[in-house]
Design a protein that fits this description.
Elements lengths: L5 E4 L3 H13 L3 E6 L7 H5 L2 E4 L12 H11 L3 E3 L9 H8 L4 E2 L4 H7 L2 H10 L7 E2 L6 H11 L3 E5 L9 E3 L5 H16 L4 E5 L5 E9 L5 E13 L2 E7 L6 H17 L4 E10 L2 E8 L6 H8 L3 H9 L16 E8 L1 E2 L6 E2 L2 E2 L2 E3 L6 E5 L6 E2 L6 E9 L2 H14 L1 E3 L5 H9 L1 H5 L6 H5 L18 E10 L2 E10 L26 E3 L4 E6 L6 E2 L4 E7 L2 E6 L4 E6 L6 E2 L4 E5 L1
Parallel strand pairs: 1-2, 1-4, 2-3, 4-5
Antiparallel strand pairs: 6-9, 7-8, 7-9, 10-11, 10-13, 11-12, 12-15, 13-14, 15-22, 16-17, 18-21, 19-23, 20-22, 24-25, 26-33, 27-29, 27-32, 28-31, 29-30, 31-33
């Protein structure tokens, strides 16, 4: 057994804060890493030490292996926790850590290699006797393969990122004509989020529930399942509400699913915390994928089992055996979590909403927990995931937990950015959720968000800061430091890059002016000047907060002008094209 002394968290936001807190309770030192935009982020403020990675985008910072390895060396960290997203399921990153004699708080690289790749995980599950959703267990090389598969098994089909999760890089294709654009978009999102662009295709079930099984395994051969989570309330194939235990879920199916999850875990020599995901429909379940990391929704399992999963990740990585067995695990009550994302759900659009949080007041009371990565005054950047916080409650039964969560949402005050909280209220009050009869397609196909009104928002502040290189004395030692100040208070030449200046005005319905609805980066221009377009045709594709958004023509006509090119950054209201 090797007790850990200092853990570097190779992540940001809420999960970095979560890991730091458990490490502090265990008496373990913490090291944060940060991009230029995160230099004063909450996880940086809470950690014992912090090291700059440089860059703004994920690729320049949190996906920069060399910069992270340099931070490990400088800090003397003897372990790395990858969190979720970024490098958490990257075999090369895990090997780069372990090859230096540093503990990786997660599964061995070999298990990530099998299960982190969703294609090989399908094959491993089949070898363990666990059937998956029908699909092609090969990397897609062209849209023709998507079309051929759809024609064979029926439409719609789902294109999915082979090296990711969380709905990033997943596109549903309803007919052959959509295949090319969907595959290109899925590959771009996958590359931006996980550093790999490989995708595969599988059948898209008509009305499934998304149910996943939390497992924990140690290095002494013990593997247990800790219970299931129902994650069926989704939009854009990303989860909004999660709960445990799953409602209307037979105990016999629960047991079979748990045993299947253990078989899949053993098949790849898994160690540490992991989640085996299934789709459940008409009494049958199908293996979907295995996430070789901690899940965003792990707190609901913690609340019903009384276990700190991050603590057990650390203990297992230190060589300890599990302090519990399958027979001693107990489940008490019901827990529900809602993700508080910086998105505007008005009209069911769920548009990214980066900006500065002017007010964040947490709820309180019995059975209420808020895991946040931000505080009042912090800025939610367009360059990263839009998860602000998670609100989790526990109750003695599902209905008490549901009502407690609604009360906690009412107490929560979040201003400066739009959030998913109004949508969460609609979800929790809908009869299908109350009765536990909802599906992964229910939010987008059945719920009415027309009553949700977009709030007045503050403008993002990250572009208002400029860098100043100054000298200072620290404990009597002269050092050169970089200071970031508001542009209005700075003097001298600014070194912060300016965004391209566009004439701004939000296009009204049916307008020939196509404008950006939020801050983001243009990743594709789909038309040329002089081209004829119809209503609904894609003009440009805008990426914001790791999600791609197609900006479409609201009127038919001819493209008079295009004001952007791929790679341009735009603000909300910037005109990207004019149609006449």
């Amino acid at each position: 057994m090797r007790p850990l002394k200092k853990v570097l968290i190779a992540n940001r936001g809420e999960i970095a804060v979560r890991v730091i807190r458990t490490c502090r309770e265990l008496g373990i030192g913490t090291v944060a890493v940060y991009s230029e935009l995160d230099r004063d982020a909450l996880h940086v403020r809470l950690a014992d030490e912090a090291f700059a990675l440089g860059g703004q985008t994920a690729a320049e910072s949190y996906l920069n292996t060399e910069a992270i390895l340099r931070a490990i060396e400088l800090s003397g960290a003897d372990a790395v926790h990858p969190g979720y997203g970024f490098f958490s399921e990257n075999t090369d990153f895990a090997r780069a850590i372990t090859s230096r004699g540093v503990t990786f708080i997660g599964p061995p690289p070999e298990a990530i290699e099998v299960m982190g790749d969703k294609i090989s995980s399908r094959l491993a599950a089949e070898a363990a006797g666990v059937s998956g959703v029908p699909g092609r267990s090969e990397v897609l090389t062209s849209a023709d393969e998507v079309v051929a598969f759809g024609n064979e098994v029926g439409w719609p089909v789902a294109i999915k990122a082979a090296y990711g999760g969380g709905g990033r890089g997943m596109k549903v294709v309803s007919r052959p004509e959509e295949a090319t654009e969907a595959l290109e978009s899925a590959q771009r999102e996958s590359l931006a989020s996980f550093g790999r662009s490989e995708c595969y295709v599988e059948r898209y079930l008509t009305w499934p529930r998304h149910i996943e099984m939390q497992i924990m395994a140690d290095t002494h051969g013990n593997v247990v399942w800790l219970g299931e989570r129902d994650c069926s309330a989704q939009r854009r194939h990303q989860k909004l509400v999660e709960e445990s235990p799953a409602p209307n879920f037979p105990d016999e199916v629960r047991r079979r699913m748990g045993e299947a999850a253990v078989r899949v875990s053993r098949a790849c020599g898994y160690v540490n915390a992991g989640t085996v995901e299934f789709l459940y429909q008409d009494g049958e379940f199908y293996f979907l994928e295995m996430n070789t990391r901690l899940q965003v929704e792990h707190p609901v399992t913690e609340l019903v089992t009384g276990l700190d999963l991050v603590e057990w990740q650390i203990r297992v990585a230190s060589g300890e055996s599990l302090g519990f067995t399958q027979d001693t695990i107990r489940h008490d009550g019901h827990a529900i979590e809602v993700r508080i994302n910086a998105e505007d759900p008005a009209g069911g659009r769920f548009s990214p909403s980066p900006g500065t949080i002017t007010t964040l007041r947490a709820p309180a009371g019995p059975g209420v927990r808020l895991d946040a990565g931000y505080e009042t005054g912090d800025t939610v950047s367009q360059y990263y995931d839009n998860l602000i916080a998670k609100l989790i409650v526990w109750g003695p039964d599902r209905e008490r937990a549901r009502r407690r969560l609604l009360r906690a949402i009412e107490e929560t005050r979040l201003e400066g950015v739009a959030s998913t909280l109004p949508a969460d209220t609609i979800i929790l009050n809908d009869p299908h959720f109350v009765e536990g009869t909802h599906s992964t397609r229910w939010v987008e196909e059945s719920l009415d968000f027309s009553s949700v009104v977009s709030p007045a928002l503050s403008a993002p502040s990250e572009s208002d800061l400029v860098r100043r290189d100054v000298t200072a004395e620290v404990n009597g030692r002269r050092v050169a430091v970089a200071v970031w100040l508001p542009e209005s208070g700075a003097t001298g030449p600014a070194s912060a890059p300016k965004r391209r200046n566009h004439h701004a005005s939000i296009a009204s319905s049916g307008s020939g002016t196509v404008a950006a609805p939020m801050q983001g980066t243009i990743v594709k221009v789909s038309v040329t000047e002089g081209a004829s377009v119809a209503v609904g045709d894609t003009i440009v594709v805008l990426e914001a907060m790791k999600m791609e958004n197609a900006l479409v023509a609201e009127r038919a006509g001819t493209v008079k002008s295009i004001a952007v090119t791929a790679g341009d950054s735009v603000n909300a209201g910037d005109v990207v094209a004019v149609i006449e």
